[in-house]
Amino acid sequence: MFxxxxxxxxxxxxxxxxxIPPWLSPPAEEIGVTVPLQLVVxxxxxxxxxxxxxxxxxxxxxxxxxxVTRRGDLSLNDWWExxxxxxxxxxxxxxEAGGLPDxxxxxxxxxxxxxxxxxxxGVPRGDRDTPPDGTVLSxxxxxxxxxxxxxxxxxxxxxxxxxWPLPPAAPLEFAVxxxxxxxxxxxxxxxxxxxTGAAERSRPYWP
Length: 207
Known about the structure:
Immunoglobulin-like, 5-stranded antiparallel beta sheet, 4-stranded antiparallel beta sheet
């Protein structure tokens, strides 16, 4: 043997990664149940926001959105800025008026009792072993991606929004706002009973 291992080296197993808390992402061991919607939530001259479906698990649900932007009459620079700002999910500071920056695409849900959760707040910082107080709506890498069409004059951006825990079996509101994209605050109603009913059918990959 040309390359001999170090006789003093000891084989050690890598440490087990810590489990991901249920309020941060869908359970990896579950298939989930898809509830198709294909609901156009909002539309402007250059932007369409679509709630494509909800993938439901026993612990929460993944709201799968698609944001479609088109160049239209925009200059190349303005078109690039519109596309780029569609991926602006981090909030750094406030606008000159003291509110949220116009470029931040924001989503939210609100329940009949007035409780709400938004991507503006996301997941509260704290101990990973301690569940946050209240409902959480956060961006997740699951189901994300981008594609182009129409000779690079159309852009499709897919994102997942993890809602934890499951909503009540009652109507709930889904909200979107993106001032830079020409999307004023728009609210649509969803059927929470469809979500909770689907959660009962979610099953593991292996029994």
